[in-house]
Structure formats: C-alpha cells, structure tokens
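Annex B, item 7. Sequence and structure tokens for protein A, then protein B.
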Amino acid sequence: MPPHAGHVALVEAAERLVDELTVLVCWLPDDPIPGPLRLEWMRGLFPACRVVGHGEVVPQEPADSPDFWPIWRRIIAQAHAEPIDYVFAGEDYGLDLAAHVDGFFVPLGGRVLNADDDLASLSGSAVRADPTAHWPLLPEPVRAHYRRTVCLHGAESTGKSTLAAQLAGELGTHWVPEYGRSHCEAHRGPLSREDLLLIGRAQQAMAQAAARWAGALLLLDTDALMTAAWCEMLLGERPAELMEMGKADLYLLLEPDLPWVDDGTRFFADPADRARFARLVEGVLLDAGVRFERIGGTGDERLAAARAAIDGLSCQ
C-alpha cells in the first residue's frame, strides 16, 4: 500500500522464473488505500499474470489464530489451484508460507539499489507519508493517484498565463497552456456553442495527456469550468457537459485587480462587462463545489500568494 519499485521488481523477476505467476493482493476494510483500487493497479501493471484479490477479514499473523495456516492455505488454493513450484516473497514469512503450500521459497526480495541507499527497505507507509519524496520509485498508476492538479481561474487579463509560467519555474513542474487562445487565434470570428464545447474538451484532453510528465504537481492555465463561464458570458448558457468534466484539486481564483490589456483575443474592455464576467467566473467555482483560493496583488505579491495556496495542498 501502495505498489512501489520493490513490488514491481519482485513481480517482474518472478515472472522470468516461471511459466505462470499468480499475484495475491490482500486487504482489510480499513486499509488506507482501498484494496479494489490496488487490485486494479496490479492488474494493469502485470497483465500477463493472474492477479487475484482477497478482501475477507482473516488473521494476519500466526499468533492471531490457531487456524491461521489452514485459513491461508485455503485462500492460496482458491487463488492458485495448480501445484505450486515456487513461492516468491520479499520478507521472511515466505519461508513458512512455502512450507505450508508445498512450494520452494525463492527470496527475491525485489531488491532495488542505488549508489547511496538500499531501497529494499522502502515501505508502503513511508510512501504514504511522503509520496513526493519517493516519486521516482512509484509506477504510473500510483503516481496518478497521488498527483495533484492546480488550475488557474479568472476573468480576462488577470495574469493566468504569466503566473502559470512563474509557478512552473519555481516548482520545477510543467503547465498546460490555454487551448482557447490558440483556437481563437487560428479561427477568428464569433465563438459558437460547438466551438466552446470543443475548447473545453480539448483543454481537458491536453491536461490528461500532459499529466504523467508533470511529476507530483500539474499546473493548468485553465480548464472546462473557465470555458463554462465564457459560454455563460457570451451565449447566456452554461452547458452541463462543461460543468461535469474533470476537476482540479485546487483552483486559484485570480482577482481582476490588474490592468486590462488588449492582446488581440480579448473581449471585455468595458469595466462593467469585466466586473460581470468576474462574478460569473467565481459563480462557476461556487456552483461546482470545488476548492479554491483567492489570489490578488501584483508581481511578487501575487506569486507569493499562489505559492502559499499550493503549499497547503497535500498529495497524501
């Protein structure tokens, strides 16, 4: 909990030594990571293996019950009915387990070493306590579980793109730019409902495609909720499709306290229109029920406020 480099190395090494490998994923109801989710991860990581889940509440140690070994022999027989040649485990219990299922213990241990540390001692509890510190040792499904997404949200000319680039540089991560700007630059003219739906879909697709390259934090210049606000401002409606798309873990709502600058793709120079758009932009976040923090000020003040909000976002 969760699978990490040690588990992956153990299973991949074991696969090379047998014709058929069964991986048993066991869990209890109060596990910090749900068992069915871990089972899904392991099946995705090892499609050539027989990956079996077990979620019954059973004794975890021989001292817990005189029936400990009969219970576990039954569990293993249900998962792997064929005769067992080898039993692979990274811990000493594998020796006793092998004796009880008539297999030969192969203590591969999933050893993963580098020049400085013996990572064989890497534990799931250490990963859960600080996933970011162990990021290179996590397979992609586990990274996706812990990755957090921060989206910049605000009316026109509130510095979203500038702030996204600054944050990405300071935090050493990637940011996904605004598809809508590219769309408007390529297709001059009024935006239709279909245009705006495509903008929302394309923005989400870009974010999904970029996520696995981003590390523990992914920054978005915008997302479909911002497109929903644009649709409401321009067309008087807020499509459900846009409101139902994937949400970021944290939104930074940029206050409209910067000067409005016409960059050739902006609409609302009139202060009344800008104020109305800002209200719609905030209303979308409120109606979506997402977590957001207000970010105001200029220059370093704005950047510092954004950094503080992100620092408060845990990936545990």
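Protein B:
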Amino acid sequence: MSSPAQPNLQPNSTDDLRLNEIRNWIATFDSPVLHPASLRPASADASFRRYFRAEDKEGRSWIVMDAPPPQEDVQPFLHVNRLFAQTGVSVPTVVQQDVERGFLLLSDLGSTTYLQALSPDTAHKLYLDAIDSLVLLQTQSQPDVLPEYDRALLLREMMLFPEWYVGKHLGTTLNDKQQAALNGVFDLLLANNLAQPQVYVHRDYHSRNLMVLPQGNPGILDFQDAVFGPITYDLASLLRDAYIQWDEELVLDWVIRYWERARRAGLPVNPDIDAFYRDFEFMGLQRHLKVLGIFARLYHRDGKDGYLNDLPLVMEYTRKVSYRYKELAPLVKLLDELENKAPQVGYTF
C-alpha cells in the first residue's frame, strides 16, 4: 500500500548515501539532462521504496524511484510496467534504469492523485475513467504471465488479521472456538474468491495510486505486486477504498456500470448482477481483513502511525458486509467479542 507521506530525509541531507548515489547517477544522463540540485522528495511508500522529482534543462519534471536492495527488487516493477503498457493503460515510461542498485528514472504522471481530486462533483467522471481502464486491462489478461493469486496467497494475506490486528493491535489471542469460527469465514471467502474468473489484478487499484491526467486518465502507479487473480479484486479496491468512502447507492451504481462494461467487453463476469455484487462484497471483505492486518503491522512493526487513522473506515466496511450475509454471522460475533460490542443483527441477504 503506498502513501503520500514525505520521506524523512530531505535531499540536502549529507547522511543519505543513496541520495548522493542518485545525484551522481542522474548527472550522467545524456537524455534527459537533469539538474541534480533540483532533486526533491515526491512521495514515500509503505515499503522501502521512495520517490524523488528532478527537472531537466527544459523545466520538465521526472521521477526517480529509489528501491534499495536487498529489501526491494525493481524487476517485478519493470515486468508489470511493460505488460500493462502493452494493454494501453497509462503507466510511467521507464527512461533510465540501474537494476543492480535499484534506481529507475520514470516519466512523471503529475502530482494530483485521485484522492486529492475526488469530490461529489468529480467522482462520477473519475471513477468511470478508472473503470474503463480496468476493463481495458482485464480484457487482455493472459495466464502464466503474472504470479497466481492462489489460495495460499489469499489465505496468507487474511492471516495478517489475527496476527497483527487481533494479536498486536488489540493485544488479544483467539481461543480455539474463535479461531475455528474465523477459519470457517476464511474458507467461505476463499471458496468464493477462487471460483471467480481470473484476470490481471493490480492489487492496490485505489485513490492513492491513480493519478489525474488530462489524457489517458487515470495514470496508474504502484503495480509491481500485480498477480493473476479474481476479477472483482481491483473493483473492490477502487470502490471500497480504505482512504475515502462513498454512499452505498453510488458504489452500487458504479459496480453496475463496471458489470455492464465488462459484459460488453466479453469479460466472464457472473451474468447475474446480484451474484456478481456478492462476489464483489466477498472479495472486498478478504481485502479488508488483510488491510486491517497491514495497517496494524505498519504501525506496530514499522512505526508508521498515519495508517491508524484509516482503520475505522476499513472496520466499518468489514462490519457492514458481514452484517449483510447470514453465513458471515460468525465474523460479526467474533468482532463483537473482540471489541466488547453488543451483538447486532440486520441481515439483508
């Protein structure tokens, strides 16, 4: 998960050896000719990656990715970048690269994220653009090109919830009955997720990784963890975003518009819209359980406390979906026990 937070080290820090390496690296370019003195923070990432902007002699802006080995490897980024670019969606162009040191020079897709631009007036157009790009990407999916989003990976992600959210954040250990109930929910979600048609999955297709462009909107970032997996995953990332919330009526409308576009494009979505919406909700719940664990881990392990502010919204999504389906009642009960809340009912389906 990426973050717009600024790096702690400023470009004039004499302690940052990698920053000096970057300055020396970009000073060697014949094209574009960059000014090392113009290097400044662009954004940081939830991983070890960070990004800088630099200007050329014409005043154009470029992005330098710093992905320090051995913690990071730029090869997956380069692979997915080539793959996604071939589909026609908007991704950065790789202009220069030093794979061994983990440096990339990229075209700049601007500084306006969807999160910054979204409002009641702009949301519909921006989301339809994002949906059109998603359909374009998915229609060109091929197996055996990206890693599979298989059962082991989906389950490993959800296990972050008991390990980091329950264990570290709440300071609680599940008893045998609670663990069995959670395992049952995991099995239910996995059965749904794995039965869905498989396509290219960005994995973090949300408002912080989509850039507003004048043409070819949106610009797509942070795709290096892409996989081949469930067709509703990126739609759930987009419309059940951990950083911004929309009324259920709007989300349903956008889901239906995606479903209509996907069917016209020949994508194998469930032909029944109610069943497709259930797929969307169950996929979203898998993601939200994972994200609760990730955000807790970012705080407790990595000292990044900004994500704590986003936990309540992710938990709200988790509870709302769990309330709507009778088979998810064990998760509602577990959440009530963990948070000492009175049991609630309100099943819709």
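Comment on protein B: The chain has two domains: 2-107, 114-339.
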